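Hello Y.,

Per our agreement to keep a running log of every chain we model this quarter, I'm adding this entry. I've kept the format consistent with earlier entries: sequence first, then predicted structure.
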Amino acid sequence: MFLVIYRLLAHAGPSFFMVRALGALLTAFAVGLAAGPLMIRRLTLRLIGQTVRKDGPQTHYQKAGTPTMGGVLMLFSITVSTLFWMRLTNKDTWIALMTLLAFGLIGWMDDYIKLLHKNPRGIGARAKFIAQMLASILAVAALLADARKGPETGFYIPLLHQPLIPLGSVAFLFIGFLVVTGSSNAVNLTDGLDGLAAVPTSLVALALGLLAYVAGTPHVAAAVGHPYIPGARDLVIFCCAMGGAALAFLWFNAYPAQVFMGDVGALALGAALGIVAVVIRQEILLFIMGGVFVVETVSVMLQVGSFKLTGKRIFKMAPLHHHFELKGLPEPHVVIRFWIVTFLLVLVGLSTLGARL
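Predicted structure for the entry above:
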């Protein structure tokens, strides 16, 4: 019966497209909610628990031993939902899904070595970066392989009358690598408080889904001056699955968290956001809507740079969310305010659609 429903909806006309999108969100949410308790029990039995930095906020000491690597739950939910609702012939969705899983594998290996082999370095910063670089370049190269010159390879700058700047193959690969790898690490740095990364990921994913619908629908793209990108509309399914999976994970990750996502989840989700933005040529809007991820990353860079150059720290602790904690702001307050900021930034990003200076 499920196969019949899938064939009817996945290959039906445009009137069923939003049914597929909503189905992807609800399926990912339902799978995550159903599988969550079993996943948490298995992680607990295997003693896969979180370690806590000794120099961090004292309120985090009680989190030691909380099951981590829960990002596997999100990857499973996204994969099941996407495969069920996507058009199996859509290249862009396959690339996005493979990017998610490739970065998830890198994160899983890092978490596994840290937690089960008790090696705090994991696979090592250099090995992790090389793996991320290879995975991101392969994903972007797959996009480039049969992309049309102009709409699918140009650099899109919102608000301009001529918003598309042509890029050569090397520039396209380089920018794609920066976006996918940078987004992956940015979400990973943000994932430091209960529920902090889950809601921004869901909001940005759903917003990118709307932008993918615009980019992949000819008359809508023309109406707002966005380049038309054939096949991009099916990424709505993938984005909705991400949004649903992140919300299901929040069910268990909200303060006080029963499980953490670990690198396996954070690296994968960040890379998935990045590759979707590259497909639909919305790298700048990802930068705006994911402003919380950007600020968290910049805070780490400033902290490290300042300490190396002057021996002084700018923040009490980096990433930025720990700075606010050490200033006395309760963890739930920090998290909810970061959620609010993300919601507003998503609205700012979406407001650029069709606007021209």
